[in-house]
């Protein structure tokens, strides 16, 4: 079954990922739903521990089944992945879906050359010969902008710079032309110049291949550069989602307000202080009742009857915009007006 441009290539419905530990059950992801079409980038943003990486490891089927309970549906091009045999997932990983990890040095084997590691993926999924795999590795290194690829194919990871290692990871992820690419904070450890180069590379490759991309980050500046749509996660749940420009320009959830308020502005007054979110992310062993953000939310007291602490808000989707918040539209507009006044 092949999806059309109007149908989601990836569809996640009511995903729950719970880990069994000695201290109890960790509800790392607790009822997450989203769709992604071909050729588009979904940016997933949130603090550490919000469930971003756990979600994408579940899509790839990389969790330990002995200690992890996964519920819900994960459909890739119409094929259900949750509960699929490991042999099926092994065929899909690298071939139809692939992941770029945050730490390239930790993800690459120090004992094998870059070319060997890229070529091994290609051989596994295509049955190509060693000579064909080496030629493909050189081709991919050239495609991701590695200079002298016919020579650097025999280099080891420690002989590459951080930016070059990340490019090599991208080459490995794309060697079999996957239709879904998951990038887990791939530019976090890189300087700004190299980060921009990697972002441009991903956009160029997406345009060339029509790849669907999930880009995980805690940096809204990166989201502004690369994403088409944004999904904001907090405490294992989606609290806001929608088109990038709309979410960044008119956020609808207090947590998204807080993330934007924590960022310095390059075009605003230099004397405006940052406004960090107070408190700490919730424990997913024992998450707060009601809205999981309410202990840190400056607006919880504005909602009558203590509703934020008692009742978990539903994610309401209207014209592609979604929010999980008890605040009224009027209260939200008042906040945005006050914030804009303080900024000027």
TrEMBL record:
Membrane topology: Peripheral membrane protein
Domain ABC transporter per the UniProt entry, residue ranges: 12-260
Keywords assigned: ATP-binding, Cell membrane, Membrane, Nucleotide-binding, Transport
Source species: Streptomyces corchorusii (Streptomyces chibaensis)
SUPFAM superfamilies per UniProt: P-loop containing nucleoside triphosphate hydrolases
Primary localization class, coarse: membrane
Protein name as it appears in the record: Peptide ABC transporter ATP-binding protein
Secretion signal, residue range per the UniProt entry: none
Pfam families (UniProt xref): ABC_tran, oligo_HPY
PANTHER family (UniProt xref): DIPEPTIDE TRANSPORT ATP-BINDING PROTEIN DPPD (PTHR43297:SF2), OLIGOPEPTIDE TRANSPORT ATP-BINDING PROTEIN APPD (PTHR43297)
PROSITE patterns associated with the record: ABC_TRANSPORTER_1, ABC_TRANSPORTER_2
InterPro entries with a match to the protein in the record: AAA+_ATPase (IPR003593), ABC_Ni/Peptide_Import (IPR050388), ABC_transporter-like_ATP-bd (IPR003439), ABC_transporter-like_CS (IPR017871), Oligopep_ABC_C (IPR013563), P-loop_NTPase (IPR027417)
